[in-house]
Design a protein that fits this description.
2 copies of one chain form a homodimer.
Chain A (H helix, E strand, L loop, with lengths): L30 H14 L4 E4 L4 E7 L7 E7 L7 E5 L2 E10 L4 E3 L5 H12 L3 E8 L4 E6 H11 L6 E3 H7 L1 E2 L10 H9 L1
Parallel strand pairs in A: 5-7
Antiparallel strand pairs in A: 1-4, 2-3, 4-5, 6-9, 7-8, 8-10
Chain lengths: 196, 196
Amino acid sequence: MNYPNGKRSTKQSHAPKGKIKPDFSNRGMSLEEDINVTNQYYLEAGIAVVHKKPTPVQIVNVDYPKRSAAVIKEAYFKQASTTDFNGVYRGKYIDFEAKETKNKTSFPLSNVHQHQIDHMKAIEKHGGISFLILCFSPLEEVYLLPSSGLFLYWDDQWNGGRKSIPYAFVEKEGIQIPFHFQARVDYATALDKLYF
Amino acid sequence: MNYPNGKRSTKQSHAPKGKIKPDFSNRGMSLEEDINVTNQYYLEAGIAVVHKKPTPVQIVNVDYPKRSAAVIKEAYFKQASTTDFNGVYRGKYIDFEAKETKNKTSFPLSNVHQHQIDHMKAIEKHGGISFLILCFSPLEEVYLLPSSGLFLYWDDQWNGGRKSIPYAFVEKEGIQIPFHFQARVDYATALDKLYF
């Protein structure tokens, strides 16, 4: 599926009737912003409750001026110990990380960290649903890849395996997520196909 | 259950054998810290995966000095749109807020905000488990109260009802959480009694 004229094909769209037309006004939005918009839509439409976790920050110094809000004067970014998004969908715990790559042929594993893998494995062990949302930006294609597919390549890289997940694997084992007007990254529909 | 000598009774403890003795060295810890310690223990023992969400912060100005970490120079606290803790336990999505009160006879509803209630109701609607962990600090008693009990008093307060949840109600409808050495706030055991 290519977009030679810069427009998305709606051929494979799973958008509900009357909502086929994609919104081109905000195409500059990041994957994360698109997911936030999707989550807001899911919440309002009663589809799922999923939130992005706030960026973890180590606060060192706070100023409390009279008659106005506290100002954080010194703080540092901390490494997150989990993935970025989690919540509940159809009674199930879901947990995912969203990643973009400028690569067309593979997703480099350097985009993921060991502590995220540990977290995702723990989630799966406890009966949650863990996955990646992968965006191949040059192709304008977004996929949901179950974390089991990620683990396969992640673990294999230490045994002399490749350092990336081939695009062909993602296309075969993942579910493509079409762009919708409201559910810009409609991962819930992809989850339906895989898990429900 | 009173602690006239400043020590906790271990009579009703559900601690595993050999782990009966509470650790008095960190009695100054807050409820939140005790829950964080518990979550770490649950994670390592393979019992549950639950994390506290980072405090949401609106970052306004960041300095990127050469050869050292980025410093946040101006930021503001934002109101959280969800509860503080969520995760997966025995395949279920769980979601809770932890609150302390210095009150002995009731838990004031002013400790909870409407957006948290909205969030908790959404969680329940989607099949998640939502609850409060309430600490009556003068009594040194901690309870797990299912959010349905909170909703009862929350909704009733707008119809001329009282502005607090009586201690007697929490004691009757909630599950008391004894203090353990590792699982300081052993809410998983309380969940077992209520939901599994």
